[in-house]
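can u pls check wat happens w/ protoporphyrin IX containing FE
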Amino acid sequence: MKKVWKFLSSMKFAIILLIVLAAACSLGSFIQQGKSYEYYASEYGEQVGALIIALSLNDAFHSWWFILINGFLCFNLTFCNLIRLPELIERTKSAAEIPDFSTVSGETDNPEGAMKRLGMPSPRKLDDGRLISSKNRAGLWGAWVCHLGILLIIIGFGLGQSVKQEFTAYGVAGQTRALGDTGLNLTIDDFQVLLREDDTVEQYVADITVCNPENGECRSATISVNNPADLFGMRFYQNSTGWAARVNITKDGEPLQSEVLCAGEYIPIADKPELIVSLTAFYPDYTSSGGRPATASGNLNNPAYLYQVYYMGEILGMNILYGDEPLTIDEYEVRFTEPQSYTLIAVKRDPFTPLALLGGLVVTLGLFLAFYLQPKRVWAVKNGESWTLFGECRKGGVLFTDAFLRAINQGDKNDAAS
Amino acid sequence: MLQAENFLFTAAMLCYFGAMIAYFVFVAVKNDKISTLAVAIQCAGFVLHTAALVCRGIGAGRLPLTNQYEFATSFAWGLCLVSLIFIFRFRFRILGAFAAPVIFLIIGYAAMQSKDVKELMPALQSGWLGFHVSTAIIAYGAFGVSFVISIIFLLRDKMRAQGFLDSHIPDREKLDMISYRSCALGILFLTFTIVTGAIWAERAWGSYWSWDPKETWSLVTWITYAIYLHLRIRRGWQGRSAAIFAVAGFICVMFTYVGVNTLLPGLHSYK
Ligand code: HEM
C-alpha cells in the first residue's frame, strides 16, 4: 500500500501522466470532435468508428478517461508538493548556514572581491571567521509554486466546466429576448456595424439593456467585439452578426402581420397557422456563383431573399425574391423589406475563471523563480594566508562552475596587474 | 514606408544568406576571423531586419504581428535575436552555423507569403494580441535555439573526430546547460503566450480555453517541454534523452505554427 502511495506521488508517475496527457490531447486534435457515429464510420470505417464512440474519442476533452488523467495529475501534484514542503521550509531557513557540500571550490586572496564579481551580495561573517554570502533563496520555491499554479488551473477549469452557464440571444434593434432560464430579459437598444472606407468591418457595436422583470431593475451597457460588459453577474459578449428583414403579410390587400425575422427564422400566418413562411437566407448583393446563390459584397446593392413555404409540415415551395418583389399564396401576399443586421450576443457565467487566471499567473511566477532565481551560496574559509572559496549552485551546473573559476582567476589577474 | 520595408527586408534576407555562407566557410576552412565576419553579417542582418519591422509597424499603424507574413518574419527576427544573445553570452559562435540556415529558411518562408497590409477584423483589435504574439516570437526563437543546440548535442559524438570543431563546441555538460537555459526562456515565454492568449480569447469569444487545435497543440508543446524539464532532473536521464525531448518539443512548436493550419484542414482555425 505504501509503495503504491509512493508511486502515485512520485515524479516518475508525473512524467508518465504528462506523456499520456500529451498523447490524449493530440489524439483529441486529430479526430474531429463532436460528430456522430455515422461521420466516423464513413471517415475511418465502421470498426474504428465504433471504437471512437465507445472510447468517447468524439468528445475526448470531456471524457471520463481525460478527467481521470487530470484527477491523477491533481493527486500527484498535491502530494508531491505536500511531501516536499517541510524540506523546502528547512532549506529556505538555512540560507545563512554553510552547506555540508560544495559544487566547486578554489583558492583566492580576496574572497570578497571574488564574491562581488560573481554577483553575490556582501558576505556575513560567522563567529568562527568564515564568510558566507547567499542569494536567490526564493528560487528554491520555483517548482513548488509552479506546481501549485497548475493545480489551481486544473481545479479552476474543472469547476468552471461543471458550473458554467452559457446562453445566446439574437435580434435586431428594438427586440427583447428572454435570457435562458435566468428570468432576465435582454433588450437590444441599438446595433451598428461600423465600416471603414474600404468597406471592411471595423467593429460591431450593440447597446443593450438587461432587466429583471420581478423588481424592475435594469442595467445598460455598450458592448463590442473584445469589449464585453458585466451585468447581473454575467458577462455579455458581442459574438457575431447576420442578416434580418421585416416580413409584411397582407390578406386581400389588408395588412395582417409585420415582424422582423432573422435569417433562418420562420413565421406562421396569423389566421392560418398551418401555413408557414421562412426567411431561409438573405443575400445583400446577390449573384449566382456556379448555380448557387451567393453575395458579392456586404453592401445592399442587390438584396435578395431566399424563402421557403410550408403547409402542414410539407414544403410547398422555395425561391428567391428580389428587392421588395411580392410572393402571392392564395389570398395572402408576403413581402420582405428593411434588410438589417441582427446581433448575436453570447452570455456567460463562470465564477471560476478568476481561479484559473490566478493559476496561470502563479505558474508564470513559479517558472520565473525556477529559471531565473537560481539559489546560490558562496562561502570562504581562511586557510593560512589565503582563503578557500566554496560555491554551491545545483541548478547552475558547469555554467556556475565556470563563472566561479573565472571570478577567482580574474581576481588573480587584477592583483598581478596592480 | 512599406517600400522602405520591402527594401530593408530584402537586404536583411541577403545578410542572413551571407552570414550562413560565411559560417559554412568558417566551418570548412577553420579560420576564426571568418567566424567574426559571420557574426558581424548576422548582426547587420538583424539591424536591417529590425528596421524593416519598425517600418512595417509605422506603415500599417499597428504592431506587425497579425498575418502569416508578419508572424513568419517576426519569428525569424526572434530566432536571430535569441541566437545572437546565446552566441555572445556563451561565446558559442558555431551556434550561428546551425542557426543561420534555420533563420534563412523562415525568412524565406515569410518572403513567399502575401505582404499586403490588411485592416484588422474586430476580434484581432486587442491590446492582448500584441502581448500574445510578441511573447510567442521570443518563445519560438528560444525553442529554435534549444533545438539547434540539442541537434549539436546529439551529433557531437559524430563530429568529434575533427579536432577543430571540438575546440569550438562546448562539452556535453555545457551544451546540456545552454540548451536548458534556452528551453527555460522558451517555456517561460510560451507560458506568457498561453496565458495572454487565454485572456484575449475570454474577452473576444467568451471562453478562455475551448480546445481549438491551435490551443491544444500549444498545450502539447508546453507539456512536452515540461517532460523535458523533469527528465533533466532525474538522475541518469540527463543529456541524450532530454535532448531528444527538446528536439521533439521544437517539432511540436513547428506543428503548432504551420501544421495545425495546413494538416488539420477540417478543423476551424481562428487565426
Ligand atoms: C503531476 C505533475 C508534476 C509533478 C508531480 C512534478 C514534480 C516535480 C518535482 C519533484 C520536481 C523537482 C524539483 C526540484 O528538484 O527542485 C519538479 C520540478 C519542476 N517541475 Fe514539476 N511536476 C509536475 C508537473 C509539472 C508540470 C506540468 C510542469 C510545467 C511546466 C512542471 C514544472 C516544473 C519545473 C519548472 C521544475 C523545476 C525544474 C528546473 O528548474 O529545472 N512540473 N517537478
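Chain B touches chain A through 52 residues (CB under 8 Å).
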